[in-house]
Design brief:
Length: 125
Amino acid sequence: MSVERIAVTAENDNGLDSPVSGHFGHCKAFIVSTVKDGEIIEVESVLNGSHSTCAEPVDKLASLGVNVLITLGMGMRPYMHAQQIGLSVVKGSVGTVGEAIRSYIEGTHEVMERDGLCGGGPRSH
């Protein structure tokens, strides 16, 4: 039995129908799903409130048991923190959160690499 907790950055908190957000630190919400044996069995919305460090949203997801994060974009600092705590970061695609999770389940995803990260600036998380 395989169980994963997957968070996807979302433009709103409309569950699996939410559009995937273009940037980790500025997303409206994280849609957190529990996936068991390839099936989504639970979905919850976690608002991405204000944060003073790039590590805070990463730590929040980890505290919820998330082990996979799907996002379109992410800055170097939160990416490195995610790597340090064992959170896998996966490149999402434009579409809905549900589509992004299905793509991950089907194995048609790419792991986020450093060259795919957002660049510079104090708001790049």
